[in-house]
Request: fold
Amino acid sequence: MSGNCFGKLFQITTWGESHGEAVGVVIDGCPPKIPLDEAIVQEMLDRRRPGGASTSTSRKESDTARILSGVFENKTTGTPIMIMVENKDAKSGAYKSIADLYRPGHGDITYQKKYGIRDWRGGGRASARETVGRVAAGAVANAVLNQNNIDVFSFTKALGSTIAEDFDRNAINQNMFLAADLNAAKMMEKEVVEVKKMGDSLGGIVEVRALNVPTGLGEPVFDKLDADLAKALMSIGAVKGVEIGAGFEAAKLRGSQNNDPITPEGFASNNAGGILAGISNGDEIIVRVAVKPIPSIAIEQDTIDIHNKPQKISIKGRHDISAIPRINVVCEAMVNLVIVDHLMRQKVLQSKRDD
Amino acid sequence: MSGNCFGKLFQITTWGESHGEAVGVVIDGCPPKIPLDEAIVQEMLDRRRPGGASTSTSRKESDTARILSGVFENKTTGTPIMIMVENKDAKSGAYKSIADLYRPGHGDITYQKKYGIRDWRGGGRASARETVGRVAAGAVANAVLNQNNIDVFSFTKALGSTIAEDFDRNAINQNMFLAADLNAAKMMEKEVVEVKKMGDSLGGIVEVRALNVPTGLGEPVFDKLDADLAKALMSIGAVKGVEIGAGFEAAKLRGSQNNDPITPEGFASNNAGGILAGISNGDEIIVRVAVKPIPSIAIEQDTIDIHNKPQKISIKGRHDISAIPRINVVCEAMVNLVIVDHLMRQKVLQSKRDD
Amino acid sequence: MSGNCFGKLFQITTWGESHGEAVGVVIDGCPPKIPLDEAIVQEMLDRRRPGGASTSTSRKESDTARILSGVFENKTTGTPIMIMVENKDAKSGAYKSIADLYRPGHGDITYQKKYGIRDWRGGGRASARETVGRVAAGAVANAVLNQNNIDVFSFTKALGSTIAEDFDRNAINQNMFLAADLNAAKMMEKEVVEVKKMGDSLGGIVEVRALNVPTGLGEPVFDKLDADLAKALMSIGAVKGVEIGAGFEAAKLRGSQNNDPITPEGFASNNAGGILAGISNGDEIIVRVAVKPIPSIAIEQDTIDIHNKPQKISIKGRHDISAIPRINVVCEAMVNLVIVDHLMRQKVLQSKRDD
Amino acid sequence: MSGNCFGKLFQITTWGESHGEAVGVVIDGCPPKIPLDEAIVQEMLDRRRPGGASTSTSRKESDTARILSGVFENKTTGTPIMIMVENKDAKSGAYKSIADLYRPGHGDITYQKKYGIRDWRGGGRASARETVGRVAAGAVANAVLNQNNIDVFSFTKALGSTIAEDFDRNAINQNMFLAADLNAAKMMEKEVVEVKKMGDSLGGIVEVRALNVPTGLGEPVFDKLDADLAKALMSIGAVKGVEIGAGFEAAKLRGSQNNDPITPEGFASNNAGGILAGISNGDEIIVRVAVKPIPSIAIEQDTIDIHNKPQKISIKGRHDISAIPRINVVCEAMVNLVIVDHLMRQKVLQSKRDD
Reply:
């Protein structure tokens, strides 16, 4: 029950630090006989690897996934699946100069105060590198979702001040920002260039959607599907907000506007984001997260050192300009994990029903 | 691990349906020797009782709390605390006419499809009446927080289209909408009158703040303080979004704007909402939730019945115009529960530290 | 996760003290649409009520079960089931004289040292009265097992020095000691009379068997079926040992004697007690528990008071001579709970299998 | 919550199969700043390595432990600790001939029926090799116990028909059977030689004791210290029974004999085995387990194949004659894990107490 486990039936435990020997995950509870090999995991991992977009760090990690247990003859066996990625391009030297400084917007100060000790190399456990384990597990979850015909995908809804109004799923992989809107992508590129020049960074909004999710997933009153999605997504480093369906906009609507009328063919609108009373309603699941700008910036900032002395800091390492778009696949992985977990939880009830 | 338990060390299980015999909660893990009696619970329960504001239902429940275990000579004993409130003014007759209809925006349809059976009286388990258990537990959590000098409070940030820009904590209990801004409260009153006349309903935004939360609460990488707050709040019936600190606004800021500079006296700003890398940083915890408009409206809506036939529905029961302000104390209770749980989790580590 | 919850999918939380207002249980995770009413619960509760056998206390509790939630029109709804029994014949006065004394063999001293406070009336939470909640939950579990054709029963294997060698299931309800051997029952009666005269008490051995348990229940490597049975049974107040199948006798056997040969028709013997590698093998589940003698005896004993002063104590309340046979139904209830929990856990996997 | 996790605050997840690439464990919740390096883990692991006693297999594994996360500059950081041991001397070829046979007394048949698939190489996940992860975690738990001055040790109480009556702690490491009685050890040697010749195997009894365990550990009513010990030990492959203190003998005693009198200096006897009402009483914790004989024997046995056809089987691999004494350190590791978990759980309460 410690903080590095997630999920109830499809339960994962991630481990590893940014500049330790390796990062990885143990998946306990994956159903048996699911087709799985390292290539399936690698494909999803490759989507979070640095270097893909102009917003990303130049750290070069091949991030090769090794499955060390739980798979026999390319099928899961129902036993724990351990997946590991070695850290190869970790350059801790670059961090030595700031080992005694608390970087603003980072967990340096809170980790130190919580644990009384911290691995300062590359942010240690608080590094985004921890998400390697999440994505590897998300790939396994996806293998289970595939068997249930469930389709989860993500895209960039906003980057900095640029909001993508259009939605064209085909566009997502045609631009490096993973926007579903090619015009918006062009404006994002402009904004990135400008911000990079200033030594600053950008936030944005990621949207994740899930298609073909069966009705009935979610366990009221606390483990509601939206509650677990909120936790899953808010647990990602840079995320500061989560909303379902109409989300914060719903606060401004009247009941007559916000309610989704029900017809024999389904819901006439989807302000609910596919979830009613915490249970999937058969419609598309829609969730958005607010991503804060990367805190590591070249612009000089005020901070303190571990002796509580005021200091100036300017961070010059290999840092992303924005967590977007590398964070998108992490959000998607977390949604995969929540849905597969609830799919399994619902199976318990279904097998008991005679209707 | 089923869906009606919340918390890891301070763990609650709520039970009961809107029109069943009673609703209540069992609290397992409350520390011993905390001063507690029924009056303490009653005081917080009274804040969620209907009838307080012009937005609220006319259902009259005295909601008298009885503590049936876990307290001896007005102190907790470390054993489970069971608190129960009987349902007295439940008028199920009013619901019989809609027993076969799925109310739009409600859990009727999803409960039926999930469980294959539902207690349709008053919304059953999906009713806001379930939150009686949450608030009773929140009162006990608050008794523990009091001993740690932690102060949690809530207020209405927005109701419908009215946003409260000012913040005056004293104002909160001087207006029936629990806004921290008396001018905004007046405008809210106007909007409510108008909407009521139309048979429609309103949503809004609730903000919860926690003062004096010690540094170090939160358990990365999944049980981060913000992740658990997000889950806790999103698990409340009408909530569609949760944000921490600058929240969705942070998505638009640059790193240089969003980062909170660190000084020897503390943080120079609080965009982080008191949480860095999922761990409390000693600053004020700030969280906001988006509350959707009450789905029960007099205005006629399209829906279906349990035989999948199209129907019209117009809901005329004793319903609130808005979940606000009755939901505010529920939000506060959930924040209490998360903080006390993490306070206890952190004690485990602290007792091991020599610094 | 605090200590008063048991089970993973069929999860119970018991609450209440011996002389508090009531004792009870919340069951979270019971499948929907299971036929259930108060009579079903009452029938099992009546089996643990004092007064049945000459070994039992004269405390007279009608122990009337009330179901306050989770059941609608005599069927479970999938929401939490709260069952409560009021304490009516609690005579705390009798305990006042020993409020400052630690009774040998009881939890008085350990509760005081653990929590720094204790409800000394009637043993408080450490009283066997807590098992009311377990048995009520066991009755609900049994309702689920019935639907799966699983049959769990218990009997007295030994009382004091009398060991029941024969096994006749029909005999169990034909003698007040619930032995499956009427001759042994007669000898037990003799031993009880003699011990009662001396103001002393007796222990014994209870055996529980489960028929028609499907192959495949149990979740290696920690939540093995036998491991969860061991925990469930050892968590009962007076139990000091648990063994499966041949149990401690297996330690003396050779592999060639202990192994159960496998034939196309099933296992040729059952030293395994129906469990191999922690997973049910389709054979009869057999488990035995060692029950210590009731610690409350009239014979004078050495002890200390809460000020650490030496004292003499002689306990004269309304006490059982032996926890047997009232404990038998408690053991059975715990086995019910473990099996139903694992039945549900296995459903998760089965629904994924195509063979 | 799946079956490969153990513990609540000090939580471990083991992973790996006998002939997979590696076996290991993730420890989530280890307190920070505990001195730890690979040598500490290796020392405990070496005690379970084959080859130490005449009862053991000739499989030669160096079993070199690697710590891949959670430790920085030889101290734990409070983040997950991953420890891994590669499988190097796995000879799966030897198992191919029995891939289609269910070995009596083994989990082959139950794993196949539960999961519909199994890694048959060397017993897969059901192999005793899985305990490498338990022992590695037990070594880390021991590092925490050391800081609390708690001393856990184990010894062989019986092997086959030989019972060790004497107790001399110094003797334990002076004989290859780890008996606390050198005379008994000699008789054990004789019995082993004889049984080996016959191609048969032996069971026995292991006792674990814990000294200096503080009063107050254990969380009634389900997570009692003895209940968690019972589960922990019964989850070990070959264990068929667990008893605390007087255990099954207590069933035969009278209350006046079994009760431990309390004096100002402590308990006058220890039939309780250091646990009262599920809470440690400050006395020595004493627990014994019944170990069944190794099921892999050269003597021919009846069994079936995966097509349900009758077959003969005679197992000639590199097998131990008895799980004892290699299992002793595994029992010790499980006791370490339970005690450290409860030590941490009790810290939560202590920090709240003012007495």
Chain A has one domain: 5-354. Chain A touches chain B through 111 residues (CB under 8 Å). Residues 19 and 90 of chain A are 5 Å apart (CA to CA).
